[in-house]
Design a protein that fits this description.
Elements lengths: L11 H6 L4 E2 L3 H18 L6 H11 L2 E2 L4 E2 L3 E3 L5 E3 L4 E2 L3 E4 L4 E3 L4 E2 L4 E3 L1 E2 L4 H5 L2 E4 L2 E3 L4 E2 L4 E2 L4 E2 L4 E2 L4 E2 L7 E4 L4 E5 L6
Parallel strand pairs: 2-5, 3-6, 4-7, 5-8, 6-9, 7-10, 8-13, 9-14, 10-15, 13-16, 14-17, 15-18, 17-19
Antiparallel strand pairs: 1-12, 11-12, 19-20
Helix pairs in contact: 2-3
Amino acid sequence: MGMIPVRDNRSMLERMQAGDLYQADDPAIAELMTGAHERMAAYNASAPGDQEGRRRLLEELLDEVGEGTELRPPVYVDYGTNIRVGSGTFANFGLVALDVAAITIGDDVQIGPNVQLLTPTHPVEPTPRREKWEAAKPITIGDNVWLGGGVIVLPGVSIGDNTVVGAGAVVTKDLPADVIAVGNPAKVIGKIGEGRA
C-alpha cells in the first residue's frame, strides 16, 4: 500500500468503514473494539457442553452465522461485526479473522487450525506508517472451500468455490474456483476433477 493519507472532515471511524486510511487509536474505534473483545472473551470461555449458549454468543460476536456452522474456540477478531459466515461451515481451533474490512465465508467451508484471515494493510512509506495510518481490504472465501491448517489469506483476496488451499500456504492474490493451491506465495498446482479425493 503506497498511498499517503489525505486529511478530510470524516471521522477515523468513517474513514475505516470506507476502506480508506485511518488511525486506529481513535476513541470511537477503540470503544467498538473493546466491546468486540468482551464478546470474543465470553465466546472463547464458553462451556463446550452448552451448545445453545455457545451458539448465542457466536451470533452476538459475528454479523451473520449460518445454520450448522461451528467455530471452535478460541476465535480471534478485531470487531466481529464485519464477519459473515454461511451454513455448514467448520473452523478448527485458533481462527484469526481480523475484520477491519468485511470477511465473507461461504457455505460448507472447512477451515483448519490456526488459519489467519487478515484484512488490515499498512503504508509502505515509513512516515505515514510511523504516524499509525492503516487501511483494510475485504476477504471473500467461496462455498465448499478447504483451507488447510496454518493458511494465511492476505488483504483483498478472494478464493473461488470448491478450491483447496494446502496447509501453511500464504494466499497473496485471488484464487479461482475448483483448483488446488499450495506454497508461499500460494500457486495453483492443479484443477479439481472427478474422482479426486
